[in-house]
């Protein structure tokens, strides 16, 4: 594969992966306007974000077997078309409840790009290069939170929040064209993979029995759901508590997104000297410490807007380190069931994203405390699962060695 081919493939896979981040981030500056148009609260509008996360979680479980059975492109086409149609539906909805439902269906379509992109990395690159490929993919994904809310802020201010969803439909149509004409096929269809419930569940159980997948999918999934708490609460924190405009909020969001871009680049270099396991361990330790500082400061009212932004920047740098390494380690043991593994991993991450965003909405009290508390808990719980999981695996391995030695002596 030439350097040009590598760049084009990563760019298209990154574009597929950014469909959901754009869908999540681009309409955030419109929350106050949406709440005003529908005569409701921002907390109710936040549920449209929660429904999107739930839709991604459910949809990825559906696309995993479909991608393994029919190959990568046909299910991807179907998902992208569903996304385009429901985006137009979101633009012309007349109530917040309809918007919440439409966002769920939009996620069902959009998550096809996320699952297919992860599976295609496993298809098109050797195992030794997947962590670096995922780092590059994460870099492309990380650019979207810099662009999406900033563009969304200006679009909302000039054209209204409805235009955001029309633009999303147009962008996805362009991605669909690129997928059809430029992106390689990847893994071929496998007719031996059944779509009946029992074999599908069996495939998922086969994936879940792999200890490496279980540890890094759980730890990484919980830890990387911290930004979803930030996404859910940031519009209220910066626009209502600190009183910034839609445009300024977009620039704040872009600045904090840069934390993930910088650390993604750093991860690319760190992988030349350290193992992915070492990077994740260190990252979750420091994120837990910074998260605790955020919670204590929010409780005692120590932080103004700028000090809060600085600490959150430090915290979010961890996402560019944890995400690509956890993904690579989760998918490394698989070839045949890579689609199902990617679907399970992505479904869990988005399910956790739905729970964290719902928790921020439920705990809403007009302060920064709900947002930063949920962020800290995500990092801390991920760290605990990682440490305990690896300890259990080492213990079982040592027991197996002892039993083998005893059997030889006997």
TrEMBL record:
Record bears the keyword Cell cycle: no
rRNA-binding listed as a keyword: no
Major subcellular location class: membrane
Gene3D superfamilies per the UniProt record, alphabetical: Multidrug resistance protein D
Domain Major facilitator superfamily (MFS) profile: 9-394
Keywords associated with the record: Cell membrane, Membrane, Transmembrane, Transmembrane helix, Transport
Highest taxon in the source lineage: Bacteria
Topological type in the membrane: Multi-pass membrane protein
CDD domains: MFS_MdfA_MDR_like (cd17320)
Regions that span the bilayer: 7-29, 49-67, 74-94, 100-121, 133-155, 161-183, 213-233, 248-267, 369-389
Subcellular location per the Swiss-Prot or TrEMBL entry: Cell membrane
Family, similarity comment: Belongs to the major facilitator superfamily. Bcr/CmlA family.
Name of the protein described by the UniProt record: Multidrug effflux MFS transporter
């Amino acid at each position: 594969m030439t350097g040009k081919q590598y760049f084009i493939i990563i760019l298209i896979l990154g574009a597929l992966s950014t469909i959901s981040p754009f869908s999540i981030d681009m309409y955030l500056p419109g929350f106050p306007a949406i709440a005003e148009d529908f005569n409701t609260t921002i907390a109710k509008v936040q549920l449209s974000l929660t429904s999107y996360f739930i839709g991604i979680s459910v949809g990825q479980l559906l696309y995993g077997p479909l991608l393994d059975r029919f190959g990568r492109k046909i299910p991807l086409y179907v998902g992208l078309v569903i996304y385009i149609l429901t985006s137009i539906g979101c633009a012309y909805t007349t109530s917040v409840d309809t918007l919440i439902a439409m966002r769920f269906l939009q996620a069902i379509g959009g998550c096809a790009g996320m699952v297919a992109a992860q599976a295609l990395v496993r298809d098109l690159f050797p195992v030794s290069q997947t962590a670096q490929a995922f780092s590059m993919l994460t870099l492309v994904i990380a650019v979207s939170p810099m662009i999406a809310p900033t563009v969304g802020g200006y679009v909302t201010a000039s054209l209204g929040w409805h235009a955001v969803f029309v633009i999303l439909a147009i962008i996805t149509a362009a991605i669909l064209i690129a997928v059809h004409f430029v992106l390689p096929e990847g893994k071929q269809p496998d007719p031996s993979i059944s779509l009946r419930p029992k074999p599908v569940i069996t495939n998922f159980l086969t994936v879940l029995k792999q200890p490496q997948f279980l540890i890094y999918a759980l730890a990484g999934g919980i830890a990387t759901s911290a930004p979803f708490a930030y996404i859910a609460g940031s519009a209220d924190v910066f626009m209502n508590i600190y009183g910034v405009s839609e445009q300024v909020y977009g620039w704040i969001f872009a600045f904090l997104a840069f934390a993930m871009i910088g650390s993604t680049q750093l991860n690319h270099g760190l992988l030349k000297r350290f193992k992915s396991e070492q990077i994740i361990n260190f990252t979750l330790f420091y994120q837990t410490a910074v998260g605790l500082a955020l919670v204590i400061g929010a409780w005692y009212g120590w932080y103004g807007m700028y000090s809060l932004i600085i600490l959150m920047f430090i915290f979010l740098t961890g996402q560019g380190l944890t995400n690509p390494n956890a993904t690579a380690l989760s998918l490394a043991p698989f070839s045949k069931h890579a689609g199902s593994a990617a679907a399970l991993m992505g479904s869990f991450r988005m399910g956790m994203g739905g729970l964290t965003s719902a928790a921020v909405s439920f705990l809403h009290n007009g302060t920064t405390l709900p947002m930063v508390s949920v962020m800290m808990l995500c990092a801390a719980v991920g760290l605990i699962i990682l440490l305990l999981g690896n300890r259990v695996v080492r213990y079982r391995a040592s027991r197996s060695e002892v039993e083998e030695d005893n059997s030889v002596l006997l």
